[in-house]
Amino acid sequence: MRVLVVNAGSSSLKVSVVGPEDEVSGEQEFEAVGGQVEGGRLDAAIHAMGGVEAVGHRVVHGGQRYPESVRIDAGVIRYLVTITDLAPLHLPASLAAMAAVRELMPRIPAVACFDTAFHSRMPAAASTYAIPLEWRQRYGVRRYGFHGFSHAWAARRAAQLLGSPGTGLKVVTCHLGSGASVAAVWGARSMDTTMGFTPLEGLVMATRSGSIDPGLVLWLQKHAGLSDGQMMDALDRHSGLQALAGTGDMRQLLENLSAGDEDARLAFDVYVHRLRASIASMAAAMAGLDVLVFTGGVGENASPVRAAAVSGLRFLGVEIDRELNANVTGDTDISSPSAAVPTLVIKAHEDIEVAREVRKVLTASPPSPL
User: How far apart are CA 338 and CA 238, in angstroms?
Assistant: First the structure.
C-alpha cells in the first residue's frame, strides 16, 4: 500500500509517499500558514506522486477520545475542532490540511494518526498528575506525551542498527527540533516522556517555555493582568530560546554563541541543563540505559548541543567521540570506544511510522462502500 503522509505544522506542511516496503519518496515541504499552501502547489505535488492508495495525517493531539489512530470521518473532525486549545500551534493546521487533501483526493481513505497514541500505554505513575480526581476524570487531564512517531521510529531504528530488534532495549530518545521532547522507550513501549497534557511541558524549545512553576502562571495573571490568551501566546510563541537569546533558531544561536554573545551563552546553558537532566530522568524511569539517541533537526545537526548534553552523563556510561560527533552523515554511531552505552544520531522518519499506522487501521477496518 502506497501511503501519502501529510505532516502539517504551524508554519510548514510536509508531504511524502511511503511504499509497501517503507521506502520513502517524493518528500516535499511547503511554507504554510495554518496548514494551507498557496495556489496549486499542493495539488501539483500530490498528482506528481501518483498511485496513492491511502492518506495518513500526523495529528499532534488525540485528546482523551483517541488513544490510537482512527479512520477520519465527520465525527473525528468535529471532536478535533473541540480540542484545538490543547495544541493551538498544531491542531488548526492539521484540520486545514485534512480539508485541503480531502478536496484533492475525495475517494481515498484517510487516517488520523495521533502523536499521543504512542504514549497512551505509559505507566500510570508516569501519566498521572497529582491533581483532584474530578479534573482527571471529567476533563481527561493526564500526561499525554507528544512526538510519538519520532520517538517510536528512533527506538525502532536504534534496535536495528545495534542488531537487537525486539530484545527490549532501554532507549532514551531525544527529539530536538523547534519543539523538543525526550522519551524513555523500553521494548518499543513508552515508559515516560517530558511533554505532558499539552506540548508546552518539558524541555526549553524554540519559542516555548517548557516546564515552569504553575504558581508563576497564576501570579502573573494576577499581578501583570494577563488574560488566558495573552498568557498562552507568551508561553507558546514568545518564550524559550527566542525569549532568552532573541532567536529560536539553534543555528543562529550557535553562531551568536561563537561570537561571544552573552545572551546566547545563557540560552544555550539553560537549554542544555534541562536536556541533560531530562535524559537522566528518562534513564531512571527504566532503571537503566542501553542506548541514547538524538533525532530531529537540532538533534541531527547541532553537534555542540549533543556534546554539551552528553558531557555530564558519563555516570550513565555515555561518552561520544569528538570527531565522529562533528562529522555526522546519515544514521551514525558517535560513541567513544570507551563508552559503555552507545550514542546514535538517527534521521527522523515520522512518515514511516505514520504509514505503518495507516496500514494497520485500514487492514483492521476495511473501507465501507461509497
Answer: 42
Q: What is the pTM of this model?
A: 0.93
Catalytic: which of 115, 192, 290, 351?
115
Cα radius of gyration rounded to whole Å, the chain: 20
* Residues contacting 58, CB < 8 A, separation 6+: 5, 6, 7, 8, 94, 113, 115, 149, 350, 351, 354
What single DSSP character describes residue 64?
A: T
115 is catalytic: yes
Q: What are the pLDDT tens digits along the chain (370 aa)?
A: 999 999 987 667 889 999 999 999 988 888 776 556 666 788 888 888 878 999 999 999 999 999 999 999 999 999 999 999 998 888 998 999 999 899 989 999 999 999 999 999 999 999 999 999 999 999 999 999 999 999 999 999 999 999 987 679 999 999 999 999 999 999 999 999 999 999 999 999 999 999 999 999 999 999 999 999 999 999 999 999 999 999 999 999 999 999 999 999 999 999 999 999 999 999 999 999 999 999 999 999 999 999 999 999 999 999 999 999 999 999 999 999 999 999 999 999 999 999 999 999 999 855 544 4
